[in-house]
Amino acid sequence: ASLLEADNIDMDALRSVARAIARTCGVPDTAEYSAVNGVQLFDYSSRSRCLSSCKILSSAGHTPIVLPATQESARVAAGKTALVLPVGDALIEPFWPQGLGINRGFHTAIDAAWVADVARRKGLGEAVRESRFAYECLNYGQWSHISKYVADEWVTDPLRRYTPTVVKGVASMVQAGKKGDPEEDLPLRVRGDAGAE
Predict the structure, then answer these.
(1) How far is CA 25 from CA 18, 20, 22, 28, in A?
(2) Does the global pTM surpass 0.85?
């Protein structure tokens, strides 16, 4: 990370390289750099991501509060409630050398649409489970094994969009107590509980 510290970067040389690349792409030399972050280097020495795929907003009285995405929070949330569902780079920082940014971005947006629909149909508690389970599927193993490659096969339901190997792998890890908590991270329909779809 110290390699990319501001005092270690020759900005004139960086602008020169950026201008040469832009010129090669047909951008005229008269085009100005953006006033904010006109040129910059990307630091791949670390990555970050949200620790939770969702949060619950609750307005008990006139005081809005942010609750963790748990079954207990879903039960006690009072007043008007809403789910906060970060997607794309807000949920998982892309790692460009792997080419996963837009792929994961699409999946997180589709997962959020699914979770919003589950919240409408089945309530906050089940929506929280669905969000947490989809997030685990997204982060399971190598990307090449996670999603069906043919976009025509993508549907909002993560159990049908992520590969069966991923869905079964995540479910078995949660059920065995190796990852997460079955009460919090396993949708009822995956557990086969009464009332599941």
Answers:
(1) 11, 9, 5, 9
(2) no
pLDDT tens sequence across 24-71: 877 888 888 777 667 766 555 666 667 889 999 888 767 778 899 999
**108, 112, 144, 162, 165 from 149: Cα distances, Å:** 16, 20, 8, 10, 14
Alpha helices in the chain (DSSP H): 11-24, 71-76, 101-122, 124-138, 158-161, 164-175, 182-185, 188-191
146 contact partners, CB below 8 Å, separation of at least 6: 137, 138, 140, 162, 163, 166
Instruction: Determine the Cα–Cα distance for residues 103 and 180; give it in Å rounded to an integer.
Output: 25
